[in-house]
Amino acid sequence: MANLSCGIVGLPNVGKSSLFNALTRAEADSANYPFCTIDPNVGVVELNDRRLDRIAGIAESKKKIPAVVEFVDIAGLVKGASKGEGRGNQFLDNIHHTSAIVHVVRCFENDNVTHVHGGIDPVDDIKTINMELVLADLEMTEKAVQRIKKKAKGNDKEAAATYPVLEKVLAHLESEQPVRTLDLTDEDWKKLKAYRFLTSKKVIYAANVGEDDLPEMENEHVQAVREFAEAEGNKVVPFCAKIEEEIAQFDPEEAKEFLNDMGLEESGLERLIRESYRLLGLITYFTMGPQEARAWTITEGDKAPQAAAVIHTDFEKGFIRAEVTSFTDIDELGSEKAAKEKGLMRVEGKDYVVKDGDVVYFRVSTK
Question: Over pLDDT 70: what percentage of the chain?
Answer without folding.
Answer: 88
